[in-house]
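[Q] Does anyone have a clean structure-token version of this?
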Amino acid sequence: MTQKRDYYEVLNVAKDAPKEDIKKAYRKLALKYHPDRNKAPEAEAQFKEISEAYAVLSDDEKRSQYDRFGHAGINGKYSAEDIFRGADFESIFRNAGFGGFENIFDVLFGRGGGGRGGSRKGSDLRYDLTITLEDVAFGLKKEVEMQGFESCSTCGGSGIKKGADAKKCTECGGNGEIKIIRTLAFMRFAEVQVCPKCHGKGVPAENLCGACKGAGAVRGLRKIMLNIPAGVDEGNSLRLAGEGAPSNTTGQRGDLYVVLHVKPHKQFVRRGDHIYYQAKVSFPKLALGSKIFVPTLYGETKLKIPAGTQTGTLFKLRNKGLPHFHGFGKGDQFVEVTAETPTKLSRKQKTLFKELEEETKD
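[A] Here you go.
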């Protein structure tokens, strides 16, 4: 006879682990080894083993007996049938955070819980939007036109043909969903599915709207007003709740995700919230000092160049950068001055440069 493994080892938790850690460990393993998700031959046995371990360790009295006497203490007071059949597995799943028999399938397969009016939503949609660096600096409100779904004008979004009789779907009795009972070892699960006959509407198929096929929405162009906050960055996304595709059962829309792309600027380079600009300055101005005007995202500003400034020197213009997306204030603009070498010199200029060369030889 195969010797049973230690229950704490089965769940991979310490013997003094609090109930919350035991619950988390069980949830993780239950999702990993549930036979409806894991098709490995040994998955059912492993799922049964971790469920048995959790049934004991989640119960204070059974855990106390197990801690004192091991498997003998459990077998002496509770039979295997007691552990599985006598134990309230619906409570076990609910205590583990699954919410009962029906909701474990929601967790496993990513469905929302509840009936037809539950949280099942339509698909999420994505829209890519290219903006300028100026839009990042000041924010942007823009109306965009995109392919989407609008409420069906024929049925008013209900998905049911106008003037249809009040008959209910014979398959689901008007509930829009059916329940399938499945048995696994000593446990029974109830899986809730959308009725395949009426597509979740609860009425006979012949009563569904012909224009939208019961979906309640039709594809078309939509106009949406976008409010882009200042300070966003490349790849940021904005979530617009309820602006996605509608569910063909509940009519509830998914969400729209607007993914932002920032167009490269002709003059400025962005690094975080700071802006970098390169200004070409003549040698005499660097040598003698000068004042120049440099562009910023907020208009031109005056910059003082001290005498003897070397090419490559960085000057900082405070608060001339981009707004902080998560907070207050702005970044800075850094101006790199570089010497501009003339490519064409007049005779007089050549003479002056030669004189300067002679003067600066030492």
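[Q] Thanks! Anything notable?
[A] The chain has eleven helices and 13 strands.
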